[in-house]
Amino acid sequence: MRFTHVKFGCFLACVILSLTWYNSYNGHGEGEPPHHPEIVHLYERLLAVETRGELVSRELTSVLVNLRNLTRLRINNTSSNIPGLLKRNLSLFSSRLPNTYLYLPHLRDNPDGLIPHVVVGQGRTGVSLVLGIPTVKRQKQSYLVSTLNSLLFDLSPSERNDTVIIVFVAETDIEQVNSVGALIKKNFPKDVHSGLLEVVSPSHDFYPNFSRLRETFGDSKERVRWRTKQNLDYSFLMLYAQAKGTYYVQLEDDIVAKPGYSQAMKTYVRSLASDDWMFLEFSQLGFIGKMFRTRDLPMIAEFFLMFHRDKPIDWLLDHILWVKACNPEKDVNDCNKQKGLLKLRYKPSLFQHVGLHSSLPGKLQKLKDKDFGKAPLFTAHSNPPAELSSSLEHYQQHTLERAYRGEDFFWGLAPVAGDFIRFNFPEPCKATGYRFRSGNLETNGDRFYNTTVEVLPSDGSVRDVLVGGQSPQYKGSHDGFIVIGSFVDGLAEGEIHTHIQPISAMRLLVHSNSDVWVLLSEIFIKV
């Protein structure tokens, strides 16, 4: 590679010397470009090649640095992760936005500033939906875990396999970045392992010096710095997400999602008669719930970078529409009409802003999306006749009976080991499946932990066959019950195999004391 660069450099030097000789021969002064048309054309091409060569050289240097770093990594268990790590650590901007150094000139001396730091991720690609969530350290309250719980609340297995949620930690403090990664690993281990959740942060050298920003629109220095950094954060996140799926949805770290949001968005996109839209709005607030095609993200990010010092992100997005749609010779009404063809609004809104304290210190964000409505707090089902009993004391009117009939959710005081909820069937029934969901959008922390789902076969000999023997298929519980499942991330869901049928009862059995109350927002026994 070095030999190739030397040969090209010698060639370029020879051509430049020839041009210098030609200029001197024709009476041109030193440094003055030649006037012959063909020579002028060649001269300009050489200057362009030289400029591009410098950029490519920087990119190659960055790649080589990362290759050297990757070879030093000690990878546990297997070395097969090296290609994936390499792909994730190469520069995002230099390959997708060749003009990056024009908008962020400080990176010319810090090419590593364009390399994302993947804290958590399995490199999942090829999905339909990519959800981007920027987050920063807040002085008051963090909403991130609640936001992720809301987004994951009722995703089906197929939707989980067709989605990537990227949490972009817009901080350069490595301790803060790692703490967010640890928090997500602790709360969502299954989704981290599957590749559904990723945590990414920028390089320490990515951000420019914010002390030289010009104050505009009467904003304070702190607000100008905040909105400028926010523009860079969105741009970085968009470019990281661009290669991962078909559609990108911009979210924030303090929102609530309506149940069924994933399927609603996909259905809406498929229903559109025209493919000319630039983005779709699933919330009317700011930059929340905006969906883009990932193929358009480089263009959008470049526009944001070009004017990142000048205006807030939602204003810049509107300016893109103006550039694309509006005729300067026509009035504002025509402009708004044309812009309306490029941004389409879905109602009712699928995302609601819930955070009170903004990431800008001292700012309170009280805006609410009026089109969001009231999110359902429980899911109703038609269940088989059963006699209900529980050792848990219910709160106010949120009884187990009302929840079982699909009229409300069940809300009980903090359980202790041995507490139970039991469903006795007057006639043995052939239940083929079950789903018990704990917590809801408003009280998502009140979940069942360390709790099993158990069934009581009507034929006692069935239990002896399935639980006893040298290779038991199931684990037995007391009172003749068989353990068939347990709560994971607040959800217990599964099938009941035919060789257990019919059953006389089902129960939820708590195995350890809990510090929180419990809430059942869905009870479904499928027959």
Q: Can you put this structure into words, describing what you see?
A:
The N and C termini lie far apart (68 Å). Helix 2 crosses helix 3 and helix 10 packs antiparallel against helix 12. Strand 7 and strand 8 form a beta hairpin. The chain is built from 16 helices and 20 strands. The chain is of the alpha+beta class and 527 residues long. The longest helix is centred in the N-terminal third of the chain and has 36 residues. The strands form 4 sheets. An 8-stranded mixed beta sheet has the order 1-4-3-2-5-8-7-9, with helices on both faces.
Strand order of the largest sheet: 1-4-3-2-5-8-7-9
So what's the oligomer here? single chain
Which consecutive residue ranges, at least 5 long each, have pLDDT under 50? 1-8, 19-34, 68-89
Summarize the main sheet: 8 strands, mixed
Shape: elongated
Termini separation: 68 Å
Helix content: 25-40%
Derived from helix and strand composition plus strand pairing, the structural class reads alpha+beta
